[in-house]
């Protein structure tokens, strides 16, 4: 990954920016800058319609091969798209998980039949996906999952029983990919399967979880012999961990640059308010704003370095630091926002008493260092996988 862009890349940037500015008008003007963290409950149907508009312009799944409707865009072009999307105020993507996680995983590990069955609807903005990884007692320790999948010889279907939690946007999704245990006595990373499961079926119950922000982005999902077909397991039975880790590699992909552009928008808003209310004259506030700016630039260059991973989702060692770095930075940005607001940070003006953007930012960032692997877990991953240090002892000493 280069740290600069060619003239052709910059021409592509102009094309992206022009299309977004032309189309984030009229019926879609109301969704600009909406649907992000803490705001995900707004304009859901409109944002699904926006996915279809993106598909019409061939701006969904741009890194996919052309045979599946993508543009086969280079890494540089994908970075540019995500940056310009955030800069233009593109709304929170309802198709994000399908576009950047499910699709690349099926392209890397799925069969031709699975690709033909699922990829077109993702590409066309017609099917929406959620992630079924974490469970009660198996959040950061994903290998401790207990959800089970059993193949029913009579019906010829996989039957899945168990519970998933922190399942983002499951209540607005059509499908979920599920990591489940297929061998009864298997332990840890062994004996797992990676399944593609329809949510609109008997045996699936979705219960939203209300967050500090008052919204419900994620859910508990219960499976009671929910079914999927014999061809809906990705990879061979027992290879679920390999597929699941490949998917997490794609999660550290080019969309992280778009995430950083959203961070820049938040920082710009904090700076604007600091100048208006006089907080910018406080030396401590000025220093923290400078540190936030430096941290964001550091984050960008580290992201560009880590995008040199393999097409199967494998991560370079640099990628191991990304989650720990950005989540800690973003949590501190939430604190900075409250300190810049001063006493107003604790006030909500009038009914219906909705949080302001910066209040939602502060509350939502409380979770940043927990979901996707806690900071403690991230430090273990850096030590063991990036630095090759001995693994942390498990179990009690005797």
From TrEMBL:
This protein's name: Acyl-CoA dehydrogenase
Cofactor(s) named in the record: FAD
Domain of life: Bacteria
Domain called Acyl-CoA oxidase/dehydrogenase middle: residue spans: 132-225
Chain ranges of the Acyl-CoA dehydrogenase/oxidase N-terminal domain: 8-126
Domain Acyl-CoA dehydrogenase/oxidase C-terminal: 238-386
UniProt KW keywords: FAD, Flavoprotein, Oxidoreductase
Keyword check for Flavoprotein: yes
Family: Belongs to the acyl-CoA dehydrogenase family.
């Amino acid at each position: 990954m280069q740290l600069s862009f060619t003239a052709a890349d910059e021409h592509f940037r102009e094309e992206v920016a022009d299309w977004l500015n032309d189309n984030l008008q009229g019926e879609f003007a109301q969704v600009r800058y909406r649907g992000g963290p803490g705001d995900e409950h707004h304009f859901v149907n409109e944002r699904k319609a926006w996915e279809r508009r993106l598909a019409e312009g061939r701006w969904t799944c741009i890194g996919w091969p052309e045979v599946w409707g993508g543009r086969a865009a280079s890494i540089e072009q994908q970075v540019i798209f995500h940056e310009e999307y955030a800069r233009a105020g593109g709304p929170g993507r309802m198709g994000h998980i399908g576009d950047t996680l499910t699709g690349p995983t099926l392209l890397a590990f799925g069969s031709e039949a699975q690709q033909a069955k699922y990829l077109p609807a993702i590409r066309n903005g017609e099917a929406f996906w959620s992630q079924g990884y974490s469970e009660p007692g198996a959040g950061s320790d994903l290998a401790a999952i207990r959800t089970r999948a059993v193949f029913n010889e009579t019906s010829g279907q996989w039957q899945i029983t168990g519970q998933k939690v922190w399942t983002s946007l499951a209540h607005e999704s059509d499908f979920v990919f599920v990591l489940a245990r297929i061998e009864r006595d298997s332990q840890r990373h062994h004996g797992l399967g990676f399944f593609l499961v329809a949510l609109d079926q008997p045996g699936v119950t979705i219960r939203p979880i209300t967050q500090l922000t008052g919204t419900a982005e994620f859910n508990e999902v219960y499976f009671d012999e929910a079914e999927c077909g014999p061809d809906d397991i990705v990879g061979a039975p027992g290879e679920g961990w390999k597929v699941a880790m490949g998917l997490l590699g794609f999660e550290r992909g080019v969309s992280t640059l778009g995430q950083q552009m959203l961070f820049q928008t938040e920082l710009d808003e904090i700076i604007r308010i600091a100048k208006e209310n006089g907080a910018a004259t406080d030396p401590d506030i000025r220093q923290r704003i400078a540190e936030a700016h430096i941290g964001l630039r550091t984050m960008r260059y580290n992201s560009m370095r880590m995008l040199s991973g393999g097409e199967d989702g494998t991560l370079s060692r640099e990628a191991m630091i990304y989650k720990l770095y950005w989540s800690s930075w973003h949590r501190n940005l939430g604190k900075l926002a409250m300190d810049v607001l001063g006493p107003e940070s604790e006030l909500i003006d009038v009914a219906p008493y909705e949080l302001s953007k910066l209040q939602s930012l502060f509350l939502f960032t409380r979770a940043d260092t927990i979901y996707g692997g806690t900071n403690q877990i991230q430090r273990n991953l850096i030590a063991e996988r990036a630095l090759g240090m001995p693994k942390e002892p498990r179990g009690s000493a005797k």
